[in-house]
Amino acid sequence: MRKILLGTTAVVGAALMGMSVAQAQTAPTVRVGGYFEFTGGYVDDNFDTAATTGLPSSRSKVDFRSDMELHVIVRGKAANGLSYGAEIELQMDANNTSSTAVDTDEMWGFVSSPTLGTLQFGDQDSAADQLKVAAPSVTNLGESGGWDEFIAPEAGGTRYILTTINDGSDSTKIIYLSPQFFGFDFGVSYAPNQYEGENFLIGGSSTVLQRDSNAGSIRNELSGAIRYRGSFGNVGVAAAFSAMRGDAPSGTTVRDPNAYQAGLNLSAYGVTVGGHYVWGRYGGSAPGRAGLAPGLNNSNNWTIGATYRAGAIAVGAFYALGKRDNALVGVSDREQQAIGVGAVYTMAPGLEVFANYTNIEDENVRAAGTANVAANYRNRSIDVFIIGTRLAF
Amino acid sequence: MRLTRLMMLGFTATLIAGCSALEGNVRTPELDEYSSDRRRDQVRGRLGGTDGILIFGTERNQRGGTGSGDASGIGVNAFLWRAALDTLSFMPLSSADPFGGVMITDWYSPPGTTGERFRATAYILGRQLRSDGVRVALFRQELRGNAWVDVPVAASTASELEDQVLARARELRAQSTAAAR
C-alpha cells in the first residue's frame, strides 16, 4: 500500500516536474522606463467659494499639472528556469512646498518559477490588490482617476472615497502569487506593519517605531484573493474576490480593519463592461487601511463602467457611489457619487491624448478648516473637465 | 487488498490523465497580467517600441533581434527575407510578398549567354531563423530555334542558392546582435 502511494506520488511528481519546458538562461537586463504627463483642468466646485475656504476670494477654476515617474526595471533568467528581477519606481510627490520632490513609489524584487508561481518582496501592492478585478476605465478616467488631483480635500483629508481594496498601499511585504490552474489563480500577502522603505527606527518616539505594537494604523496585514480568467465563445470573463484583514494598533479602542472586494469584467468585440463592490470595516478613502471606531457603521462603495476600443480611439464611462459613516449625531452618512465620460486617442504607441468630464455629488461633507458641528455639513457639487497627454517609454 | 490496489491503480491512472490535461492549463502568469494602478501601465504601447530603454544587457526582443518578423511588420523571418533578397538581387525581381514569404524573379540571362535564362522562386517558410526555413526553386530554359524550352536544373544548384541565403542571414543576424551590444 505504502509502495503504491509512494509510486503514485512519484508519478505525479514526475508529471509535474516534466511540465517545465527546457529554459535558456538569459543574461540580466537593466532598463529605464517611465512616463510624463501634462494635464490641464477646469474645475467648478461649490466648496471653492470664499465663504467655504475663508480666503478673500474664490479659487480660480483653471489649473495645470505635470507628473512623472521613472522606473528602473531589472530582469533575468537563471539556467534552472527561474526568472528574477526587481523594479524601483521613482515618483513625484507633493511632500515639499514646491511639490517637486522625488521619492520612491513601489520598489520590489521577485523570483518566478514556471510551475511554482511568483514570490514578490518589497514595497509592492498586496495580493488582494494585484489580483483584484475592478470596473474598466480608460486613461485618467475613473472613480479616482484624474479629476481628484484638481480638487481640495474635505475636512477629513479625503478627495474621494470611491476606490478599490487597499488603494495602492505599498507597505513592505511579501507576496505569493500562484500559477494559473484552468483559468484560476490565487495569491496571499503579509505585511507586519504599514511602513515602507528602509524602515529606519526612529528613537525617542513611541508612535513611529515600526516594531511597536501601538505604532501606525494597521498591523499584521494579511490579504488574499482568488481570480478567474477565461473566455466563453467570444466573450472574455475576468472575476475575482479579494479580502484583507489587519490588527488595529494596541492601546486604541478602534476595531480591527477588514475589507472585501468582488469584481467582474466581461469583454467582447472591443467592448468591456464590468464593476466592483467594496465593503468592510474601515473609514476614510482607503479600504482596509485603518480600523473603525466603535459604534460606526461599515463602509462600502461600488462602481460600474464600460469601455470601447476601436483602433487608436478608446472611450469610456462610469458611475460610482460610496458611503461612509459621518460619526456625528444628527448628521447622515457621507454619500459620494461620481459620473464620468471620457476618450483617449493613441497618437503613437506610448503617446496618448485624453479628455474627460466627471461630475461629483458629495453629500454631507465638511470643508477643510471648519468646526466639526452638524451645521457645517453640506452637500458639495463638483464638475471637473480635464485634457492632457501622457507619454510612456 | 486487491480491490484497494485496483482502486489505487485507477486513482493513479486518473491522476496521470489529469496531469496530461494540466500541461496545457497550468502556467505562471506574467507580471503584466496582474491588476496595476500604475499610471504608466494604463498607456498603450511604449515610445521606442520596447518596455523601457535598455541600459545594460542584450536586447532579446528588439526589432530584428531574432528577426522573428513580429516587430518589423513582415510575416516571415526578417533575416531570411533580407538574405533571400540580397542573394537573388542579381536577377530582376518580378514579385515579392513579405507576408506570405514568396519572392519570384523574372527571367534572367547571365551576361554573355543569350541562349539560356533562369528564373528563381524563393519561399521563406516561417518566423524562425532555421536552416530549413528557406526553399529555393530554380527554373532554366534554353532557346531552341525561336522558342524557349524548359531544361532540367541540377538539384545541387537550388540547394547551393539556399546555402547562400542562409550564410547571408547568419551574417545579418551577427551584425544586428553586434549593433545591439
Automatic annotation (TrEMBL), chain A:
It holds the Pfam family Porin_4. The keyword Magnesium does not apply. It is a multi-pass membrane protein. Residues 1-24 form the signal peptide. Residues 15-364 form the Porin domain. Keywords: Cell outer membrane, Ion transport, Membrane, Porin, Signal, Transmembrane, Transmembrane beta strand, Transport. This is Porin. It comes from Falsiroseomonas oleicola.
